[in-house]
Design the sequence.
């Protein structure tokens, strides 16, 4: 599978491709509950128009230490009460996350190959599943490996269009340009410390100064430290702004759909990928730290003009919205149909 930006030039499949026509009558989504992994799986299942069962694994120590190469936790074997992999097994199993790999392998063997397996993100072995998707910045390659620049997600064109047709009144009341600020948080490569918060404050203050007519829509992630959210509150006090406080439903989709500019955090490949699906001008805020994979990912997006670094005044720019999800889903469905059962 080629790069998503290349494939999009020749064909543009829509969300909700006819999975039933491909013979998929049952589907599991298998993760350990991490939101980033579940978003990948949900995005593909929704793009296929599938009904699915969410199956979450919860392996204990020491089995976690052995994953992805080791066995499943014996407590979660299919014959044990409450097992997440109890049969009957599905036609299609979509998994993501290192801890899900042994369970994926187990179901493949237990179903005697009748379950078609898909793994999203690198499982460190091409033999882990029938089809594997990885982003371009991952080094895994092979005949059963699909590669795209951006990750699968749930921010579809249809979802954005629906949100734009029914804007919440509090967003309609905000003056334009509207700037969505997506706050990230500590990860393996990045850290939100005092220096990060000072730089975030300076960046937001610069926007307020150079774009005084702007309004803001701010949403934290589950990883956002309270001090980082408070930094945004203090800088934007007195400016037209909606700042989600974590109560009620997250207005994330509405913020993306109605933003003229989006400030996205380098620590979240998922949020950056969702931001560039909108067509809004996307600026990257980089917290302290970093890593080669993130650098390669952002370099790929810069190369096609989809993002810019948040290091100066905001200026509008155009690019074709990027969403690899329907492309990945279509390819999975094609390979499922061609599989030698």
Sequence:
């Amino acid at each position: 599978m080629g790069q998503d930006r290349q494939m999009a030039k020749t064909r543009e499949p829509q969300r909700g491709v006819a999975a039933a026509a491909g013979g998929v009558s049952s589907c599991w989504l298998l993760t350990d509950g991490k939101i980033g992994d579940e978003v990948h799986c949900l995005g593909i299942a929704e793009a296929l128009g599938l009904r699915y069962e969410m199956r979450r694994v919860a392996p204990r120590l020491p089995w976690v230490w052995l994953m992805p190469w080791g066995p499943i936790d014996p407590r979660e074997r299919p014959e044990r009460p409450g097992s997440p992999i109890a049969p009957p097994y599905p036609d299609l199993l979509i998994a993501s996350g290192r801890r899900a790999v042994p369970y994926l392998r187990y179901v493949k063997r237990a179903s005697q190959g009748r379950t078609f397996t898909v793994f999203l993100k690198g499982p460190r072995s091409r033999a882990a599943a029938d089809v594997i998707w990885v982003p371009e910045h991952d080094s895994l390659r092979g005949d059963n490996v699909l590669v795209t620049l951006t990750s699968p997600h749930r921010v579809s064109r249809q979802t954005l269009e629906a949100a734009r047709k029914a804007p919440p009144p509090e967003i309609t009341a905000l003056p334009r340009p509207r700037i969505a600020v997506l706050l990230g948080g500590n990860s393996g490569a990045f850290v939100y410390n005092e220096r990060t918060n000072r730089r975030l404050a300076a960046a937001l203050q610069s926007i307020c100064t150079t774009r005084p007519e702007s309004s803001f829509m701010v949403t934290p992630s589950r990883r956002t430290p309270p001090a980082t959210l408070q930094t945004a509150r203090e800088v934007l006090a007195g400016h037209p702004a909606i700042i989600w406080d974590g109560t009620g439903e997250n207005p994330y989709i509405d913020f993306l759909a109605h933003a003229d500019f989006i400030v996205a955090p380098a620590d979240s490949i998922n949020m950056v990928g969702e931001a560039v699906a909108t067509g809004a001008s996307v600026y990257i805020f980089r917290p302290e730290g970093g890593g080669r994979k993130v650098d390669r990912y952002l370099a790929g997006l810069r190369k096609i003009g989809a993002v810019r670094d948040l290091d100066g005044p905001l200026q509008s720019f155009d690019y074709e919205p990027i969403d690899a999800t329907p492309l990945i889903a279509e390819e999975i469905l094609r390979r499922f149909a061609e599989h030698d059962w």
User: Anything to note?
Assistant: The CA atoms of residues 38 and 337 lie 24 Å apart. Residues 194-210 form the longest helix (17 residues).
